[in-house]
Structures are given as C-alpha cells and as structure tokens.
Design a protein that fits this description.
The chain is α/β, with parallel strands linked by helices and 285 residues long. The chain starts with 8 loop residues before the first strand and ends with a strand. The radius of gyration is 24 Å and the shape is elongated. The strands form two sheets. The chain has a seven-stranded mixed beta sheet, with helices on both faces. It has a two-stranded antiparallel ribbon with strand order 1-2.
C-alpha cells in the first residue's frame, strides 16, 4: 500500500476486485463495500489523539455500558420532533427540571429549559433571551433598541465573543488584573448603561477553574439599580462549575437563590458525566 500526496487520494486496504485508491474530496465513481468504507474512516480517526488522555477541554470521555446502550437506543430519534417522539421529549424535560431543582429555581413548574448542542448553544440562547428582554422593555418605554451591549470578564469563553458577533451586541470586557483576578463586580458602574442587556458571570473560568463571585456581582448591580433605576439581569455560564458546586459548595449562593440570576447554562459533557456534546440551559421563569 502506497501513499502519493500529489494525487490527493486516500490509500485503502487491498480487496479482490477493488481499486486500491479512492478520491478524497468527491464521490467515488463506483460503490464500495461497507467494510471498506468503515476502514477508511476508522483509519482517519486513528490519527487523532487518545480522547481518554485529553486533559485540555473538560470533555467527558467515558460512560458505563448502560449509558452507552441508551445512547445507541436514541441514535434514530429526531428529538426536535416532539410530537413524534413524546417520551424522548419527556426525558429531556425531566433532565432540565432536575437541574432547575438542583439550582434552586423558586418554582420548578414555573421554570423553562432545554437541552442544546453543547454549552455554546446554551450560552447563545441565554444571551439571546437577555437581548429580547431588553428589547421588549425598551420598546415598551418608547426608547431605542440600537446599540445593545453585554458586560463580562475578559477571561470569558470564546462562545460569548461569537454571541456578540452573531447578534450584533457590543462586548464590554471587565479586565482581569492582579488586584481583581476574577470578575467580582468591581467598577461595574463604569461598564453598564441603559443599553446593557445583561451581565455574564462564569462559574469556572476556563484558564483557572475559579468561580466568579456571582453574589458580589449581584450586589453591585443592586447598588447600580438603586442609583440609576437600571434593572440588569445576570446569566451564569455554569461552565465547569454548575454540575460540581451544588455538591462540593452547597452553601455558595450563585444560582437562582439570587433573584438577579435569570438564566444558567452548563455543559453536560464537562462534569455532567456524559460524552460530548450536550449542554443545558434553564431560565428562572
């Protein structure tokens, strides 16, 4: 078996009656056995690193065999078609309601939530809800809905940069410094104004794992509302902490116990114990 980089062809194992090369970037002219197609893709993935040795991206790489079997049972379910697959949809609903209870939603029955394709999509939905809430309030007051902004730490995960880019929101970053190694609400009045759709707090900064003190950020926003009348909501990016803090730091108030926290997102595939990629988002109401 040979490899010729100049012809952009993928080598395969010899089989009687088959060509030993196939085009990489276009459909082949002839069919091939399923075993051959499997071997081609399988060998490509062999070049990746060992997922069990990945310590960089907070991704779960192991589940027990019963969870593996449940994954296989659900491969063919189009979960978005909730009329066709109501029991699968009910399982999803059960999961986010369990999270709503874990995160101290004042009323689980009054909460709202959904699963997402990874936590980045959950952050997108959380940010979009903040923008919609702000737009509705501004329109009701007869004021402009132009130039929305979102305030967050300079150590925020890149998905928030993407959110601001996708939905035309100005990103306002509070710098991380030696004096303030995490976003703790300091000088917050310098960053928020009538166009601020919300503030993002991170429960598990990507670089350090540190929890931003959501309660301190909430108190800073309370003080701002008292002086300016601005009612600014918090979205907690649960990141690597929302599945851990309720068990290791149950006394820590970061979740819906704080009235200013309107929504929380997290990754099921970080410390939720499942493979990538699933995320969750829950709204207070």
């Amino acid at each position: 078996m040979t490899h010729r980089p100049d012809d952009a062809l993928t080598p395969v194992f010899d089989r009687a009656g088959e060509a030993t090369r196939r085009p990489r970037d276009r459909f082949p002219r002839t069919p091939e056995l399923p075993e051959t197609a499997y071997q081609i893709v399988h060998d490509e993935m062999m070049l990746d690193g060992n997922a069990r040795m990945n310590l960089a991206t907070f991704v779960g790489t192991w589940m027990d065999e019963h969870a593996d079997r449940l994954y296989a049972d659900a491969y063919d379910k189009n979960m978005i078609d909730k009329d066709e697959y109501p029991r699968t949809a009910e399982i999803e609903r059960t999961c986010w309601r369990m999270l709503a209870d874990l995160w101290h939603a004042p009323s689980v029955d009054g909460a709202a939530g959904t699963s997402t394709i990874g936590s980045s999509e959950a952050c997108m939905l959380g940010g979009l809800a903040l923008k919609r809430r702000w737009q509705h309030a501004r329109r009701a007051a007869g004021t402009s809905t132009e130039k929305p902004n979102l305030v967050m730490s300079s150590a925020v995960q890149v998905c928030w940069e993407k959110f601001c880019n996708y939905w035309d929101v100005e990103a306002r970053y509070v710098p991380v410094t030696d004096e303030h190694p995490v976003f703790d609400g300091h000088d917050l009045a310098d960053y928020v104004d009538e166009n601020t759709i919300g503030v993002v707090a991170i429960l598990g900064v990507t670089y350090t794992g540190a929890y931003e003190p959501v309660a301190s950020i909430s108190r800073a926003l309370d003080a701002i509302e008292q002086t300016t009348g601005l009612d600014i909501a918090i979205h907690v990016d649960g990141a690597s902490g929302a599945m851990v803090a309720p068990f290791l730091r149950p006394e820590l108030e970061w979740d819906f116990r704080l009235e200013r926290v309107h929504s929380i997102s997290t990754s099921g595939h970080k410390y939720g114990g499942v493979y990538p990629g699933v995320g969750w988002i829950v709204w207070r109401e």
